[in-house]
Specification:
The structure holds 2 protein chains of 2 kinds. By secondary structure, chain A is of the alpha/beta class. Chain A contains 15 helices and 12 strands. The longest helix of chain A is centred in the first third of the chain and has 34 residues, at 97-130. Chain B is rod-shaped, with a radius of gyration of 33 Å. By secondary structure, chain B is an all-alpha fold. The chains are: A alpha/beta, B mainly alpha. Chains A and B meet through β1, α2, α4, α9 and α10 of A and α1, α2 and α3 of B.
């Protein structure tokens, strides 16, 4: 049974001045822009070998064409994958880390398939052209300069793809998976000379230069945002655990103090990848959202014991040194398109919502509502803080308690939140709850562009 | 469950961006100098990777060592004497190891095979 509790609701109705939401100040790429750019690039890169073949006057042989087009697209796909995972702020804050990771995961599968298709089609084309067996053709093709190293690189990519299959990855410790994933860079390095020397680029110096620059700039982005920036942040901010507070069974809030934290430009809704420098935890960076708006001297995260990593943080000591990479995430006030806001949280997904509830810019008279799904009232985190914020800001909180699977259905949501389609909705919760909420929200007429989400499971 | 009521209180909480703006004056000098230094370092890194990219591209062969696969029809029609239509894209020769390895067709491009 689901029960609903409304937080302290204020008393009067004010005239709602039509004040637009604050415009975002950061440079952000919209997901649609990124996809359009990637698609356009793929179309150009894929068309180039076909144009070359047409210009040569040779008949278009299917295997030959597949080999060339797949090879070029695979090379291009690698550049896209590297860029998506570079953690460049314009992508992280515009698209969102969870979306980027999903794109990277899908793109990775496509690239591995393209590389395999390229290799197979090249060998098959050779076998067909020379009327010999595939094995003989393979031996012949591998005899070309750079092809053995490119093949070893391909095997590395296949290995990385293999350990990234969900069923395999679940069984591997993160550290093992991560180490194997690093083979990607070795694989790319081994195959790079083959790319530049391939028949589609060789002889076209401008294209070779452009291709090489795309690769080196993608690597530069990775280097800057994944290696240099974290090192800079560590040396600049000197983060340490200053306070640990128990919020509930298996849930703690960790307050981290440091210097010059305003330089991070963190906002409510952002998350960091936290690396606690203890013997148990220093190898792994854990992504956790800010559970309170950042201040100039402190950041707060809240951790629920869900896995090995988060469980080991339960005993973290005050004074522990911390490295924090970030801020990341796109679920901030900058995503706003409407005046009314609905926050939907489930379980520990309340952490970014609690910060957003406090800081979300809101014109007088506009609606700010929090729907908080939990099993029982005892499972509600930050209850005192939430109700205090709601009272100060005139927000409404509705706790959706119990086990009723339909409590987030379209009908229930439409009843709970009048004018739902006119809201911006921020959603964060466990996968099943988030899926039910997503279905309910869209079913209740919410346009997709007004749903801003951060998924637990990338 | 309860009727929706709006707030009499000011909702003008600070926008997140104003957070950093408000602090810009506090220790602003050091922040500015640090940012300038970071930007300079990043620019140098980008310049360095650009040079590396240019070097790799300019060191790459202008003729592909990977022979384009010629369709069977063309192979059949082409003859050494004919000077094939694809000559412009054919490398002058491949590696020493492969040269003259005719019987298996390894140097079949250009009309020697089949």
């Amino acid at each position: 049974m689901t029960s609903e509790i409304t937080g302290r609701t204020p008393l009067f109705v004010l005239d709602p001045p039509p004040e637009p939401p604050a415009a975002p100040e950061r440079w952000r790429f919209h997901p649609g822009e990124v996809l359009a750019a990637v698609g356009l690039g793929a179309a150009v890169v894929g068309a180039w070998p076909v144009l070359l073949m047409l210009r040569s006057g040779l008949p278009l042989e299917p295997f030959v064409m597949i080999a060339h087009v797949c090879g070029m697209l695979a090379g291009y796909g690698v550049i896209v994958l590297l860029t998506l995972m570079s953690r460049a702020p314009a992508l992280e804050h515009g698209v969102g880390a969870d979306v980027l990771t999903r794109w990277h995961s899908r793109g990775g599968r496509i690239v591995v398939l393209l590389v395999l298709a390229h290799g197979y089609a090249a060998v098959a084309a050779w076998a067909s052209a020379h009327r010999e067996s595939v094995m003989l053709a393979l031996r012949d093709v591998l005899g070309f300069p750079g092809l053995v190293t490119a093949t070893v690189g391909t095997l590395f990519l296949v290995a990385v793809g293999g350990v990234s299959i969900r069923a395999v990855r679940r069984r591997l410790p993160y550290e093992v998976w991560h180490s194997v994933h690093l083979l990607t860079y070795v694989g790319l390095a081994l195959g790079f000379s083959h790319q530049l020397a391939g028949p589609d680029l060789a002889g076209h110096r401008v294209l070779q230069v452009l291709w090489a620059l795309l690769y080196t700039q993608a690597f530069a982005l990775l280097l800057v945002h994944r290696v240099i920036t974290p090192l800079r942040q560590a040396s600049r901010h000197h983060l340490r655990v200053s306070r640990v507070r128990e919020e509930g069974p298996g849930v703690i809030s960790i307050e981290v103090e440091g210097d010059h934290l305003h330089e991070l430009q963190a906002e409510a809704g952002h998350f960091f990848r936290w690396r606690f420098l203890t013997t148990q935890n220093w190898l792994t960076a854990h992504p956790f959202s800010l559970s309170a708006p950042p201040s100039a001297h402190a950041l707060r995260l809240t951790v629920k014991s869900l896995g090995t990593g988060s469980a080991s943080l339960q005993g973290i000591q005050v004074g522990t040194r911390v490295l924090a990479e970030g801020p990341y995430g796109a679920m901030t006030a900058a995503r706003r398109t409407r005046l009314d806001v609905l926050l939907v949280a489930g379980g520990v997904g309340i952490t970014p919502m609690r910060a957003l509830l406090e800081t979300m810019p809101l014109a007088p008279g506009r609606r700010l509502t929090l729907l908080y799904r939990a099993r029982t009232l005892d499972d509600v985190l930050f209850r005192t803080e939430l109700e205090d914020i709601a009272w100060r800001r005139g927000a409404t909180i509705r706790y959706l308690l119990g086990h009723d699977p339909d409590c987030l259905s379209a009908q229930r949501l439409a009843r709970l939140v009048p004018g739902l389609a006119g809201h911006d909705v921020y959603l964060c919760g466990p996968p099943r709850m988030a899926q039910a909420a997503r279905r309910g929200l869209l079913g209740a007429g919410l346009p997709t562009r007004q749903l801003h989400e951060e998924r637990f499971a990338f | 469950m309860s009727a929706y009521l709006e707030s009499p209180f000011s909702n003008a909480s600070p926008a997140p961006s104003s957070f950093s703006r408000s602090l810009a004056g506090v220790g602003g000098r050091s922040t500015a100098s640090v940012r300038t230094r970071y930007r300079r370092q990043t620019a140098v890194l980008m310049l360095g990777t650009t040079v590396v990219g240019l070097w790799m591209a300019l060191a790459a062969p202008s003729v592909s060592p990977v022979t384009p696969v010629t369709p069977p029809a063309v192979l059949g029609a082409a003859d050494p004497a004919a000077g094939s239509a694809t000559d412009s894209t054919v490398p002058p020769r491949r590696s020493r190891q492969l040269a003259g390895d005719g019987p298996r067709g390894r140097d079949g491009f250009g009309g020697r095979r089949p």
